[in-house]
Amino acid sequence: MLALKLLPQLLAWTATALLLLRAFSGRRLATAYAAGAGFLGGTAALAVVPGALLYDMVRGFLGAAFLLLWGVSVVVLYQSNRREGASGVRFLNRAPLCGAVALVCGLIAGATCACRLGSGAAGQLLTPLLLAVAGCALVAAALYAERLLSPRITVTPAGLLAALVALALFASSFLIRVDLFAPLSMKVMKGTHDFVHQFMESVLIPDHIFVRQVVWGYIGIFFSKDVGFWGGMVIWFTPVCLLLLAIRLQRLPKVSHIRQGAQRRQVIARAIKERNLRLAVPGFALAVLIAAAYQSQHPTVEYWDPKPLQLTANAAGEIFIPRKGEVNLEDGKLHKYLFKQGEREARFFVLMAPNGKLTVDLDACAICKPDGYGQTEGTLICYYCKTLIPLETIGMTGGCNPVPVQFADTPDGVRLNAASLLNSWGQTIQSTTRPKEGGK
Q1: Phi, psi of 287 (to 5 degrees)
Q2: What domains are defined for the chain?
Q3: pLDDT tens, 212-254?
Q4: pTM for this structure?
């Protein structure tokens, strides 16, 4: 079960070790030792670093690596007109660089596996030990497999960075609290929403007489969820595409000094073949990024999302939910409810926060369309924009947090005002669905 659970991360780690050994082929043993030590250190973080901090650290490292890849890809494209062969071979075989890169990659891979295991394995000795042994064994297997590869397959510094970042992002895409693609799409979507809204408010004046309904239909496109997805795709794939373009644009060697035409053609053909081989590693990185984006959009995590129970109000317009009855409000799980009055309705949930206090919130936020929330380990997730909300912040206003509802917490249960609940839901739905209805 442990091997199946960690299979994507261990496969990514094997490919990472293989790439490192090929890139630092002049110092294979030093690279292997550094990679294994890094993996051991990342695995040990499971017992040393608190769970929430470990997730944040891994996401921070991944974000920094992705930004570094962006910067490197722009520089490489700018320098693509140089006549060079397999550039960076000497640079890749410097001892300090070999050890540092392999150590960092091992730390990130080990920490990602630790995150995959979760905080429940922190108190167990056997599980982290087996993971550490497996990681080192895979490095040894990669050391053997690398010698079987064709010597023609070379790895440039930029290609190595692209492949390492892609593999790390792929491994993290199976962990919803570490994945970067879904939050990236959300940031693009919300940034677009805010920009268009502010632009229309400050420049065009939304209810201007010359802005017709058909125009609002086109403007509404910018408020759709697809804007975030496709915008995220552009940011996600552009660095690797720039590297591939830089290789294709790389100038061929000069042959004007060669008198024999056959020899000229041989030199050019050999240079073209070497250039095509250099496309292999960035092409591999592109394929891995595609797999990571797909996994991010189709997570295997199961969310706790119970069917809303329908409630009624008493003659005084009060809704009462007992602490322990059909459901136990103190079990730490999300409990959803639906209240209807005539043609009006409101959907909300009750949840006991980690501090032991109950909170009542709408099953919607003040930003996104009301697709609702699901619960996973330590967080709620907004189904519309995939934002993760820590349970510690539920009941607070702002961002994508659920809209809090006023309630009375009594020893026997929770009491809400039906009219106030309906008004709060109606105002939230009206504000979040306004762009879809034409921007007015």
Answers
A1: -65, -40
A2: 2-183+226-297 (no CATH), 309-437 (2.102.10)
A3: 566 666 666 676 767 888 899 999 999 999 999 998 888 877 7
A4: 0.74
Euclidean distance between CA atoms 369 and 232, whole angstroms: 19
* CA–CA dist 171, 112 (Å, integer): 7
Q: Residues 254-313: pLDDT tens digits?
A: 777 777 778 878 878 888 888 888 899 999 999 999 999 999 888 776 678 888 999 998
Decide: helix, strand or coil at residue 340. Answer: strand
Exposure string over 175-185, b if 16+ CB within 10 A, otherwise e: bbbbbbbbbbb
Q: What is the DSSP string of 134-177?
A: HHHHHHHHHHHHHTTS-TT----HHHHHHHHHHHHHHHHTT-TT
Cβ–Cβ contacts within 10 Å for residue 329, how many?
A: 20
Give the residue among 327, 323, 244, 322 at the shortest CA–CA distance from 282: 244
Place of tokens 């917490």: 409
Measure the CA–CA gap between 360 and 348, rounded to whole angstroms: 7
Mean pLDDT across the chain = 83
